[in-house]
Amino acid sequence: MSKVPVMEVFGPTIQGEGMVIGQKTMFVRTAGCDYSCSWCDSSFTWDGTGIDLIKQMDAEEIWAELVSHGGEGFSFVTISGGNPALLKNLSYLINLLKEKKIKIGLETQGSKWQDWFLNIDELTISPKPPSSGMETDFNALDMILGKMKATDNRNQTSLKVVVFNDEDYNYAKMVHLRYPEIPFFLQVGNEDNKTTDDQMLINELLKKYEWLINKVMADDELKDVKVLPQLHTYIWGNKRGV
Length: 242
Ligand SMILES: C[S@@+](CC[C@H](N)C(=O)[O-])C[C@H]1O[C@@H](n2cnc3c(N)ncnc32)[C@H](O)[C@@H]1O
Ligand SMILES: Nc1nc2[nH]cc(C(=O)O)c2c(=O)[nH]1
Ligand code: SF4
Ligand SMILES: [Mg+2]
Fold this sequence. Notes:
Elements: E1 4-14, E2 24-30, E3 55-57, H1 59-70, E4 76-80, H2 90-99, E5 103-108, E6 122-125, H3 138-149, E7 156-163, H4 166-178, E8 184-188, H5 198-217, E9 225-228, H6 231-236
Parallel strand pairs: 2-4, 4-5, 5-6, 6-7, 7-8, 8-9
Antiparallel strand pairs: 1-2, 1-3
This protein binds S-adenosylmethionine, the ligand Nc1nc2[nH]cc(C(=O)O)c2c(=O)[nH]1, iron/sulfur cluster (SF4) and magnesium ion.
């Protein structure tokens, strides 16, 4: 009853994205997404290609798997997907991690609310720009960010928009200007999320990072923002489970 579909458990690694970039962390990746972004680097969570990897697990089983990979060497767990916000039952894992004094990060796109968001220490909301092919439900986003704001800084919420082109950049700007008080991150988009040619990929990603930095430097409307690479791709390329 209290199970959730888990795609992979991995780590220790570093958080490669967003507000806690560089943080040593374990990952739990859930299966299933309500979106289908054209450039999704984790499409195996929802496109059927990873179906054999899905395990229905309860909180204690997930904890045992985290410990089997991470031993006593972790104090932070990041939950991603897919969209973990589809899973009401993640409350059991989140409560268990709290009991174990583990800090919790979570990645979601801002299309669905769960009451257990209030127990996440570092919540990253990543609305999707036009290049994804997805349409942002700003009513849902307003509601989610409004509820998080009411929590008196018990937890940190940030916005992270992935940018592939000028249209995405303008979308990112619009999102930031709509929610100016929320810490805002621009992230380099990885256009080639299948290649195994790491050198070529790193060269491309560095160029894209410079392009994005230059745009922000020249833009008087974007002031209090952070521009970040997807750090793990610069180290491990498109490898899964890192
Ligand atoms: C795979 S998603 C899973 C969590 C949730 N579904 C979401 O999109 O926020 C995790 C993060 O990876 C980002 N991402 C996915 N594909 C990417 C790509 N090709 N380049 C850069 N970031 C990407 C997403 O925008 C999101 O911020
Ligand atoms: N190292 C590392 N950092 C990440 N940050 C967000 C990730 C994700 O796929 O959600 C991710 C990931 O897959 N690996
Ligand atoms: S919302 Fe996240 S997991 Fe879902 S398709 Fe988009 S990037 Fe992939
Ligand atoms: Mg990823």
